[in-house]
Every structure is written in C-alpha cells, then in structure tokens.
Design goal:
Blueprint lengths: L5 H12 L38 H11 L62 H10 L8 H8 L5 H9 L5 H13 L7 H6 L8 H10 L20 E2 L14 H4 L8 E2 L21 H10 L18 H12 L12
Antiparallel strand pairs: 1-2
Helix pairs in contact: 2-5, 2-6, 3-6, 8-11
C-alpha cells in the first residue's frame, strides 16, 4: 500500500484523532504529534531518518509491538524477553534464550541510548536501528518468524490498526513494524544517574567512596576512559580486550569485515546502568563487575589483535570496592521508558 500524503494524510489524522476505543487504556488515540522526548542536560538529540520522524503514535505503536510475544513464531518470545525494562533493557541470562528454548552465542546488551549508535549488534553488522528489528524476528534461534506474517497477523487488531494509520498513513506491514519499534527504542535514553547530577554541579550526589572510585576510573593508570568516555561512556568503537586467545567460536567484528585485524573485536558497551546489566562481555562469561575489573587489571591475554589501550594495573580490595561503588552510581534514578 502506498503511503498516504498531503491532504489525504491530514484528513486521516483529523478523523483518527476524533475517535477512541472504549476500554483501550494501554494506548491513547491522539492526533499524531512529535514525541516529547526528554533528554538529560547536555545530551544531543538522537538523529532519526527522514522517513521515520519520532512521533507519539509511532512510539506508542513500537512499544506495543516490543512487548507482544506474537512477533515470535510460537507466540512465546517478545523483544522484552531478552531486554528486561527493570534491568535497563538488558538480559540477565549469559546468552539469550529464544524460540523453543534455543540459545544464542551472545549476551543481549542494554538498549539504553541505542538511538545514538551508528551500527548495531556487538559486531556492528547492521547499519540502522530499523534494519536491526528484522534480524531477531527472522533468526531461527531467536524468534524464528517472518516479519510479513507478523504484520498479517496483527494488522487488523487494535491498537495496531489505528496507530499504524495514525503514525504512517498505511496498514501495519514490515516497513511500519521496523520503523515503529526503532522509534520506541530511540526513546530509551539513559542519563539520569547520581553521576550525572554530580557532573551538573550537585557535589553531594556522590559519596566519598564513589568519588574515590571516580578518581580511579579517570586515572591514567587504569585508562578506563580510553574507551569509556563521552555522554554514553562508550566510544562505540570495536576493541579486542584479550578475553581469549582463540576467537574461532565468535570472531567478533571480523564476521562482518572479514579482516584478520578485526578478530576478537567487539563494540564497547556503555557503562550506564552497568550495575544492572550483568553478566558481562559479549558472551556473558563474566558474572560480576569484580570479574571484569580483574580481567582488565591483568591486561588481557596476549592476542595478536590486543588493543594498545590495554595495560596491567594493581588495585587493593578496597580500591576495587571503590571502583564498583562508582560504577553503581551510573544507574539511572528513573525508568528508561518514557511512555506511561
């Protein structure tokens, strides 16, 4: 179906905004307007594609789809099955469990601030947030479905039928599904932690232990900020941190580029809400922040592609506790979900 434009779209929006389904409290029918995205002080506005403006109806539609298990073939797995809202939209399982209990080979990371990324998955194999939506739906291990069949199943149901027309001027289809879920994910902004309040001038936001941890974090000896910097505490680049000598099970970025120099490189995760997003590393092999700190203190295994920023350092048990306390201060004090 062609996308409705011009006068036809205006008429559609006016007509749609005059109706409300009785009993539909989950999603309110309103004239589609730009979504009032709340951003922490100093954060840039996420860039959205020209064909997918961030609107209220598109975000509402995306959220409904995100939590609907019918996007999977057997109706048991939703996006939220691997991205738990209470855990900053991450997965507590070492590797995520999908269709019929099948397990993948990577841990599902937080979706916090994903709207700022320029490539997706831990190897950066997908260039847009819209395209990222397709992969788990079609993956045999994850949802094992067909996005076109998902659209056919849901398009005549509410709130999908109404919101799809309101947001995009067309019936629910694969194009609408990818764009609306992407827009909901763009609203999952992380930046309301005690650490942020401290940066904004509230010098009481961090206690003495957390301040000692911050000093360690920013020290030249630990070199954490070589990769974990900026408002998202990530350079969004790809690094080999010497977790293994043999990456044949998962070569990381090399799966995409086919370059030997990219073996074992994975995208730097954000440290925001890191106290909530265990287990750690691309394969979830490290269960606690202490395990992560011990690994980086060792300097990593001497893989050929080991990042030059990796270096050994020594911390006492008290200093490790200080550093973990600081990392815990990066937890948001409010939900990432901006929809009621």
């Amino acid at each position: 179906m062609k996308r409705t434009t011009g006068i036809g779209l205006v008429a559609l929006l006016v007509l749609t905004s005059c109706h409300k389904d009785v009993g539909d409290d989950a999603v309110q029918t309103i004239a589609d307007t730009p979504f009032a995205l709340q951003l922490p002080p100093g954060f840039p506005v996420p860039v959205t594609p020209v064909d997918n403006p961030l609107t209220t109806a598109s975000v509402q539609l995306g959220k409904a789809l995100f939590f609907d298990p019918r996007v999977s073939r057997d109706g048991s797995i939703s996006c939220a099955s691997c991205h738990f809202p209470e855990l900053a939209f991450s997965d507590p399982a070492r590797v995520s469990v999908g269709f019929e209990g099948r397990t993948g080979f990577r841990n599902s990371p937080t979706l916090g601030n994903v709207g700022y990324h320029t490539a997706f998955f831990r190897d950066g194999g997908v260039p847009t947030l819209e395209q990222q939506v397709i992969a788990p739906i079609h993956d045999a291990v994850e949802m094992n479905h067909d996005i076109n069949l998902v659209a056919a199943l849901l398009r005549n149901e509410e709130p999908y039928k109404r919101l799809s027309q309101l947001a995009y001027g067309r019936a629910l289809d694969a194009w609408v599904i990818t764009r609306s879920i992407a827009n909901y994910e763009r609203t999952l902004v992380s930046g309301w932690s005690r650490y942020d309040r401290y940066l904004q001038g509230d010098l009481t936001a961090l206690d003495e232990q957390e301040l000692r941890g911050l000093q360690l974090f920013t020290s030249a000896d630990l070199n954490c900020t070589a990769c974990h910097s900026g408002f998202d505490l990530s350079d969004h680049a790809y690094h080999n941190v010497g977790q293994y000598l043999d990456y044949s099970t998962d070569p990381g970025r090399q799966r995409i580029t086919l370059q030997p120099g990219d073996v074992g490189k994975f995208k730097t995760p954000t440290l925001r809400n890191v106290a909530l997003t265990a287990p750690y590393m691309h394969d979830g092999r490290m269960p606690t922040l202490k395990h992560v700190i011990d690994h980086f203190a060792s300097g990593g295994l001497p893989h050929t592609n080991l990042d030059t920023a990796m270096r050994t350092f020594t911390l006492t048990d008290a200093e490790k506790a200080d550093l973990i306390a600081f990392l815990s201060s990066l937890t948001d004090e409010r939900s990432l979900d901006q929809l009621p």
